Each structure stands twice: as C-alpha cells, then as structure tokens.
Amino acid sequence: MKTKRILIDLPLDYGMTHMGFESNLTRQEISINSPELQKLTIREFCMLPREEVLSADGMTADKLSAIERLLNEYSLRLGMSAKELDTYLNCYYQERPEEKKFYDLCDQLASKPSFDEKKFRDELKRKLHGSPMDGNRLNDLGWQRYLTVREAYLNQPWYVKCFCSRLTRVRRATKDALAIHEIFCLLATESCIDTERWNFEHKEVRPTHQR
After folding, report:
1. Spatial separation of the C-alpha atoms in residues 70 and 67, rounded to whole Å
2. What's the CA gap between 137 and 144, in Å, rounded?
3. CA–CA separation, 64 and 47 (whole Å)
4. Which sequence spans correspond to the domains of the chain?
5. What is the pLDDT of residues 92-140, one digit of tens each?
C-alpha cells in the first residue's frame, strides 16, 4: 500500500482540511481555532512539541489526540526535526516529479525582480501630460482602456494570482478588458440607435408651404 503524504509547505488549516477528506474524522474533531496555530504551515506545526500545542487556545486533549491520529496517517507527528521534515518533503517530490517542476517554476518567477510600479507611473504620467504634437500622449480612450486592464489585473481571483505567471495574468487582464470595452461599445451603439429611432418616429412634422 502506497504511503500517504501531503505537501508540508501548505497552510495548516488548508492542509488539515485536505487530509480530513480522506479520513473518517470530522472537521469538528480536527478543527484548530487558535489564531497563532492557524498562521503556521504543516511543517511548522509538526515541529512544535505536544505540550505547546496542547496549551494553545481552544485545544483539548481529545482534539489533539484526533489531530495526531490524522497526522500519523500521513507519516507525520508533532516534535519532528527539520531534517526529518526535509526528508519527508524530498520523498513527497520524488513521488510527484511534475509537481516539483511546477513549484520550482513558481520559485523562479518569484525570484525575478518585482514590477517597478513607480517607474511605470512616471512614464505614464510623462505620456499623459506630454505635448499632443509629439504623438505620445494617451487619448481618453487609451486611458480608459489602461484603467480597465489595471483593475482587471488587480482584482483577479486568488488562484490566478497564486498559480499564473505575471505574463499570463497580464494577457488575461487585457483579454477581459477588451471584452468589457467591446460590450460597452455594443451597448452604447444600440442605445444611440434606439435614441435616433425614437427621435425620428416622434419628430414634429412641419407642413409644407405652398407657393
């Protein structure tokens, strides 16, 4: 039977929920209500001594016993050393090489220099307030499109922010912004057509003077 393992770098609350799905323990039995413990990863939690966990807010002996049984199902326990956890993590990645490649890629992306927003803002301000004769100034439509792309980028779902590269996020935001502007132009055009039709149908008919 294959040994069950879990990525110990996951947040503790999420990890416990994931492990609980494959266990006969209920969420109530393994829930951790202490704010101090909730901020930890599974790795950090497993390095704590049993006495320290038992002294946390909302922790009881019965609940701790259930948590220890759940950890044991995944070959984990309280009081593990950093070396033991490193070995555990290596075994996890050896069994899932594709997942290891993914997290290595995430680390590479995170190590790249961050986006220089101040430089971008300064350049954008220069273009906005530049001379209209040099052809570099953004028109109103360009500015609105920029704001739409920016809002679409900053308000993307958490899973997009966590698992997508910056280039993918920009492309997704640009695509969403184009769709928004296309719908807006379509609705505005239909509204104009309806207004013109109404004006045409209700315009005052002036009598023709006979000579």
Report:
1. 5
2. 13
3. 15
4. 12-108, 117-202
5. 888 888 888 877 777 776 666 666 777 777 776 766 665 554 555 455 6
